[in-house]
Design a protein that fits this description.
By secondary structure, the protein is mostly helical. The chain has three domains: 90 residues, Orthogonal Bundle (Fumarase C, Chain B, domain 1); 240 residues, Fumarase/aspartase (Central domain) (Fumarase C, Chain A, domain 2, Up-down Bundle), CATH 1.20.200; 34 residues, no CATH class. The chain is 61% helix and 5% strand. It is built from 18 helices and six strands. The protein has a two-stranded antiparallel sheet with strand order 1-2. The protein has a two-stranded parallel sheet with strand order 3-4. α7 packs parallel to α13, α12 runs antiparallel to α13 and α15 crosses α16. The radius of gyration is 28 Å and the shape is elongated. The structure holds arginine. Arginine (ARG) binds next to α7. The site of arginine (ARG) has 10 residues, from α7.
Length: 458
């Protein structure tokens, strides 16, 4: 049996075969369940329009489920000669079902097939990332509530600036996650239309029911213009990576704070031993490696975003093999952001806030601005008050830090950081994402007649 879908009786030069497959035979392993589900929907649609019989579509479904199960057992593989997951699956179908296997590709191309795989993969992975971001936001808010008014030196230029609180500081990162959810949501919606039926990008002379395939796969609708389908490849990945770049950058900045605040000179935060690897030579060391890796990997995510956009930004319309090169940076960044969120949540949940150290580190200059503001309240022009306080810094009293915090009770101030409002917003997102996940996985479950309670990716 010919291994390649495009086999016409000649072989490729071995170096070109290796070069063209690139990482596809490895990366595509993660696309297998989505490829099978896409094929099930396509077969069912072909049965509806009379290209296949209902029995044939059913046989294909059974075989595709068997392939998914063998993948889950670790028994599925893609050979280099097969190039990609689409070929490996079609070869298995043809091996098992003969001519019926050879019919599955009617009315589609690998171009719309790889897109449907990637869009299903993206939906599945983004849903998990959404939940992780929600959990992290909740973790930050809960820790913020537990230490709502614990005083911390607010800094600008890394130097002592004004009194702040742990509630305000951690709440700010929860608020950042809320903004990231908006960006991720935009990317999620962009990704949520079904490209199947575009074939090579110009449609086919069959009466395809594209709405049916979209519905069977749990998409919100059809990706209309068939020529846009190939243009959307890389663009969608770029939108997802742009959102994830923001997530990764926020995690990186949180990590930077935690690295500093857990250093010996500060000890504002205590990181548990189990999160801190040691040194091979210095017996005392417990290092914040996971936080440093979050910081470094955020750079990789940003670089992947640029990588993807650079690959696509100057291509002419239509499919180009260049598009394959967006897969690696895209999929690796998805993995990276997912695991960075897992580790960040672990750190936030397990770290301890050392309120004694925080109080011991308060100093009078943190209250200088408050003092100037008090004088302004009494009627002194602010610039005069500013100069007076600057000249009398030694007279400032740091003792009553609680009042200094509570006195900033305007919206979002240290005395009123709005943590409960933020929590309500996060919970509203959680409900929304749960409803989306439920809709998506139940559509896929009824298509395959297999349960996918917590997502497909393993
Ligand atoms: N591995 C290919 C990719 O990721 C699949 C599509 C191949 N299509 C083609 N016309 N050669 O782009």
């Amino acid at each position: 049996m010919a291994k390649k879908l495009w086999d016409k009786g000649y072989g490729l030069a071995p170096e070109v075969e290796l070069f063209s497959a690139g990482e596809d035979h490895i990366l595509d392993m993660d696309l297998l369940p989505y490829d099978c589900l896409g094929s099930m929907a396509h077969a069912k649609m072909l049965a509806k329009i009379g290209i296949l019989t209902t029995e044939e579509a059913e046989l294909l479904r059974e075989e595709l489920v068997a392939i998914m199960r063998s993948w889950a057992r670790g028994e599925f593989s893609i050979s280099l000669e097969e190039e990609d997951v689409h070929t490996a699956v079609e070869n298995l179908l043809t091996g098992a079902l003969g001519d019926l296997g050879k019919k599955i590709h009617t009315g589609r191309s690998r171009n719309d097939q790889v897109l449907v795989d990637l869009r299903l993969y993206t939906k599945d992975r983004l849903l998990t990332i959404f939940f992780r971001a929600v959990d992290l936001a909740k973790g930050l808010i809960e820790k913020g509530i537990a230490h709502r008014f614990a005083p911390i030196a607010g800094r600008t230029h890394t130097r002592r600036a004004m009194i702040s609180t742990v509630g305000l500081w951690l709440g700010s990162f929860a608020q950042a996650m809320l903004d990231d959810l908006v960006l991720m949501d935009a990317a999620y919606r962009m990704n949520d239309t079904c490209p199947l039926g575009a074939a090579a990008g110009f449609g086919v002379n069959l009466d395809l029911d594209r709405e049916l395939t979209a519905e069977l796969l749990g998409f919100s609708g059809v990706l209309g213009n068939v020529a846009y389908v190939n243009l959307s490849r890389g663009k969608t990945e770029g939108a997802v990576l742009a959102a994830l770049t923001q997530v990764a950058a926020d995690l990186s900045r949180l990590a930077a704070d935690l690295i500093l605040y857990s250093a010996e000179e500060y000890r504002y935060i205590e990181l548990p031993d189990e999160l801190c690897p040691g040194s091979s030579i210095m017996p005392q060391k417990k290092n914040p490696d996971p936080l440093e890796l979050i910081r470094a990997r955020s750079a990789t995510v940003l670089a992947s975003y640029l990588n993807v956009m650079e690959v696509v930004r100057s291509l002419t319309s239509g499919y180009h093999r260049d598009l394959q090169e967006t897969k690696g940076p895209f999929m690796r960044s998805i993995d990276m952001v997912d695991s960075c969120l897992v580790v960040a949540l672990e750190v936030v949940n397990k770290m301890e806030v050392n309120e004694d150290a925080l109080k011991a580190h308060l100093s009078p200059e943190l209250f200088a601005t408050d003092r100037a503001m008090d004088l302004a309240k009494e009627g002194m022009p602010f610039r005069d008050a500013y100069r007076k306080v600057a000249a009398e810094l030694h007279e400032i009293d740091a003792a009553d830090f609680e009042a200094a915090i509570l006195n900033k009770a305007h919206t979002g101030g240290p005395g009123n950081p709005g943590l409960e409002d933020a929590l309500a917003e996060v919970e509203a997102w959680e409900k929304e994402i749960e409803a989306r996940a439920e809709g998506f996985y139940s559509a896929l479950s009824s298509l395959a007649r297999v349960d996918f309670p917590g997502g497909l990716y393993e």
